[in-house]
Every structure is written in structure tokens, then in C-alpha cells.
Amino acid sequence: xxxxxxxxxREAMQQKNVEALFVTSAINRRYLTGFTGSSGYVLVTMNxxxxxxxxxxxxxxxxxxxxxxxxxxxxxxxxxxxxxxxxANISKVAFEQDHVSFAAYSAYAEQLKPVELVPVSGLVEQxxxxxxxxxLKIMQRAADLADDTFRHILGFVKTGMTEREVDxxxxxxxxxxxxxxxxxxxxxxxxxxxxxxHGVASERVIVGNELITFDFGALLDGYCSDLTRTxxxxxxxxxxxxxxxxxxxxxxxxxxxxxxxxxxxEADALARDIITKYGYGDMFGHSTGHGLGMEVHxxxxxxxxxxxxxQPGMVVTVEPGxxxxxxxxxxxxDDIVITETGNAVLTHSSKEFTVxxx
Length: 358
Ligand code: ZN
Ligand code: ZN
Known about the structure:
There is one protein chain. This protein is an alpha+beta fold. 34% of the residues lie in helices and 23% in strands. It contains ten helices and 20 strands. The chain has helices at 4-15, 26-33, 60-64, 77-87, 102-112, 123-128, 133-154, 163-176, 238-257, 264-277, and strands spanning 20-23, 41-45, 49-53, 69-72, 92-96, 116-120, 181-182, 187-190, 210-216, 218-220, 223-224, 227-233, 289-291, 298-302, 315-318, 321-324, 328-331, 334-338, 343-345, 355-356. The strands form six sheets. The protein has a six-stranded mixed beta sheet with strand order 4-3-2-1-5-6, with helices on both faces. Helix 3 links the parallel strand 3 and strand 4. Helix 7 packs across helix 8 and helix 9 runs antiparallel to helix 10 (264-277). The protein starts with a helix and ends with a strand. Residues 226, 290, 317, 319, 333 line the site of one zinc ion. Its cofactor is Mn(2+).
């Protein structure tokens, strides 16, 4: 009575000589069990898979976490973990060191004695990198919603509005169409603010004859999309049209050539080499892309430093940009899935240079 994610996790545990794993990350908990409640812990051994939660969830948890033994934990949940480990004769349990504060670790170590705690990293995250068919379906819906939101906002945005008003409309649209919320703080960066790669929507008024960068996504059924488009409203500086064409060339070239077997560094270079060739290499200060899934930034990384090898089933972003301080910037981002032969693009919003009337 185990799902394929638990079976894969057990293989990873065996490779690391881990007999039992105690999962505290909320996202990893949801990934393994399907349980969407706000509180719970997962304990996986070679023979059993438990979801520990409290009385509030004793109806919901067994319905969602079908392959798990759902246990209502004691007031101190570590007492229940200790009991379960003792009944299986397990004296060592691995914990997710990246998701446990020092204070929590100290408490667990004390309360679980004489069981020994062993720190591990990324056991579940390594599984999450590869999306199965069911996950890809959800991610396609999250991508479609981002595309719909962009189309909607093109008919909404006008000069005289603040960036925050536009942000709010995007948030409302996404939630109205099924999103839990935006997958991160929406970037609406107009005018000289578009030169800030992380220009979260501000009180700035959109005045016209400038660029606007929208970078946003929907969190839908637990998965994120992440889309960036840059448009003009009125006639911006000619230099900005020039960098738009360069970023678009770099982005399209990367989409055409990304394939399995490539390293993150090689994928990054596909975009970076073109931008550098035109003399803007030092104005492209971030990496070309990142993994995407239940979190908006996951592995693999598409960066100058990344040795990650791209493989079928990975979902990544491709988002080169050029930023000229004081003038403006351009970024264009799509979400893609690596396939056996290349990649498939999940987001489809137009990348033609769009000029809205002032
Ligand atoms: Zn983005
Ligand atoms: Zn991104």
C-alpha cells in the first residue's frame, strides 16, 4: 500500500543508508501524501508510510492520503514518532535539515532520545524535479491561466493607473479563475523601474511612452506557473526596442536548442552568448532560468555555475533579460518541459513587440 512517490523515496533512502525519514516540509508532505491540510508530519520507513496530523484533520487526511497510515498524533507529536520508531525497532531517523530550525532540531533531539537524528538534504526535492503526467497536466493549467491573465491585462492596463492597481487586477483575475493565489509577488515594473529585474508592483503611475514588464504566475492545485512579458505603452526610447529584439532572439534561440543531456551551464550559455555578442552581457545579471513546480524556484538551475543535467520530465523557465539603469529593461520568460527529444513550451502568450496606445 504505497504510491510510486513513496517507492521512489525508499530507493533514494536506501542509497543514502537511511532507514527512516521524518518529513517536516509542508510542500514535501503534500507531494508525498496528497494531503493539503496545514499541519502534519510524514514518517517513511522501509515497510510503512505514516501521516501524523491532529484531530482537526482526521476526516480530511484519510480521504486525501490514501496510501498512508493516518495517525492522530499525541499532543507532543514527537511522542508519536518515538512510539512508531520503537515499534519498528528503529534507532536512527533522518530529518530534513533544510526545513528544520535550530530550535526545532534541539527539541526533536531531546524529545526523541535515545533515537538518533541524522541530517539529510533534498531527498524528496530530488524526486520533485521530475514531473509525472498528472503533475504536467496541472502545470499546463497553471501556465494556461498565466496566459489568460496576460491577455486580460493587455485589455486592462492604461496610462494613469498605478502598477499596484494592475497587480491587483491580475491577482483578482487569477483567483477568480481557480488559482489559490499568485505564485509569488507579482512584478509590474514600468518605465525606468523595468530596469529592476525584481521590481514588485509599486505606487508608480504608468505615464506612457515606456515599457512595462509583467512577471507573474498562478499557484493552481499546488503548482506554480511563471511568465514574463514586456510590452510598450506609447513610443518608448528606440534603444529599448533594440534590446527587446535582442532578448527575444536570445530567448527563441534557447527554446529552439534546449535538450536533454545538456548542463544548466550550457543551457544558460545559449541565451547569454547572444546577449554578450550584442555587447549587453554585463546587463544580463541573472541566470537564464530555474526549475519550476510546487515551488517557484526549484532545481535544476540554468546558470553559469550549474552542473545540473537537464533530463526529460524537468520543468524549467527560460527568461533572459537586459536591464539599462535609468532607462528600462526587457525580460521574456516561458515555462518549458524537457522531453526525450528537446522541449515543449507550456506558456504561449505572444512575444511580438506589443505597443498599446497611450
Ligand atoms: Zn518570472
Ligand atoms: Zn522565473
